[in-house]
From TrEMBL:
This is Heat-inducible transcription repressor HrcA. HAMAP family: HrcA. Residues 113-336 form the Heat-inducible transcription repressor HrcA C-terminal domain. One of its GO terms (biological process) is negative regulation of DNA-templated transcription. Keywords: Repressor, Stress response, Transcription, Transcription regulation. InterPro entries: GAF-like_dom_sf (IPR029016), HrcA (IPR002571), HrcA_C (IPR021153), WH-like_DNA-bd_sf (IPR036388), WH_DNA-bd_sf (IPR036390), WHTH_transcript_rep_HrcA_IDD (IPR023120). Belongs to the HrcA family.
């Protein structure tokens, strides 16, 4: 779309005010805005016929649409984007909204993921949308790896991190494994992983195994390959997407078709299909981003909008994100500061606990 500033500058004062009032009324009510309503809201006293002419011009520009004959106008997706980029005014979150978010950290107890669950619940409650919180990946250095046999066809790979965090990954080991081959595989890996994070291990371990394959026997080598596969297959679990407030969207008035689209959206999110892409949405900048309707493929079907912001660790590295999904008529002026405030709060929380 053309630069919103230039489009707004090309409009005269009357067109700009009509456009602004239509969008603000739509965001407030969700319904079309008629010329008679506008004549009562404009600073300049003009006739309904004049207002209708202005709306027709805005419709020609692709900024407004008429859902039904003589039913008034609503903003198009392009119109909403123009409003958000060029006319939206934002302040700070209200004291009430800040207090409700802050209250989730009041106890400051439990692990980070439990706190982030509470943050997600509070965010959906404050915004009356659905909240998304992408938890941080665990990036501490690995201190120790061990293989534990559970049955002939089941084993655990146990990861112990330098900060005391422990993760277990269940996998199917190659047939014929013995306690000896498991010890050999673990000793081999422990000699290579010292000082490395799980991400480092994923990137380099395969090539290291190829270089040093002659140092271990076939059984241990096969076990290591299976362990690596377990790390790759379950890698998405390292960054978990917490979804709260789904009922807020399903409670929105709309057609059966619209509700089905929203259900499909949440089914996709709960299957974690797009976790990586969700984080990528934030990586072009360190501020809040707004996606309206079909502007990204996560929401092309449901027609929802997303307000999302990354959060960072103490090294200013993006490690997760928080966001709010809602209808395209979100109160962007209120939601954006809340998401920004929450992201900064979560970043500080994660940094303080690292």
């Amino acid at each position: 779309m053309t630069d919103p500033k230039s489009i707004l500058e090309e409009m005269n004062d009357r067109s700009r005010e009509v456009f602004r009032v239509v969008v603000e009324n739509y965001l407030d009510t969700g319904g079309p805005v008629g010329s008679r309503t506008l004549t009562r809201s404009l600073s300049e006293k003009v006739s309904a016929a004049t207002v209708r002419n202005v709306m027709q011009d805005l419709e020609y520009l692709g900024l407004l649409d008429s859902p039904h004959v003589s039913a008034g106008r609503i903003p198009t997706q392009a119109g909403l984007r123009l409003f958000v980029d060029g006319l939206l005014q934002m302040g700070d979150p209200s004291a009430t909204d800040r207090d409700r978010i802050d209250a989730t950290l009041g106890e400051n107890s439990g692990d980070v993921e439990r706190v982030l669950n509470r943050v997600g619940a509070a965010l959906s409650g404050v915004t009356q949308g659905a909240s998304l919180v992408l938890t941080p990946k665990h990036e501490a250095e690995i201190r120790h790896i061990e293989f534990v046999s559970l049955a002939a066809d089941r084993a655990l790979v146990v990861l112990v991190f330098s900060d005391g965090h422990v993760e277990n990954r269940l996998f199917t080991p190659p047939p014929g494994q013995t306690p000896s081959s498991m010890r050999e595989a673990a000793n081999f890996l422990n000699a290579l992983i010292e000082g490395r994070t799980l991400s480092d291990v994923r990137r380099t371990m395969q090539s290291e195994i190829e270089k040093r394959r002659q140092e271990i026997d076939t059984l241990a080598s096969d076990l290591i390959e299976s362990g690596l596969a377990a790390w790759e297959d379950q890698g998405a679990d390292q960054a978990r997407l917490i979804v709260r407030g789904r009922s807020n969207l399903l409670a929105e008035e709309g057609s059966v078709e619209e509700l089905d689209k929203i259900r499909e959206l949440f089914d996709d999110l709960e299957r974690k299909r797009d976790i990586a892409e969700f984080l990528q949405l934030t990586e072009d900048g360190d501020g809040v981003r707004i996606f309206i309707g079909s502007e990204n493929k996560l929401f092309s079907l449901s027609g929802s909008s997303l307000v999302v912001s990354p959060y960072m660790n103490a090294d200013r590295k993006i490690i997760g994100a928080v966001g709010v999904i809602g209808p395209t008529r979100l109160n962007y002026g209120r939601i954006v500061p809340i998401v920004d405030y929450t992201a900064q709060l979560v970043g500080k929380l994660v940094s303080d606990r690292s």
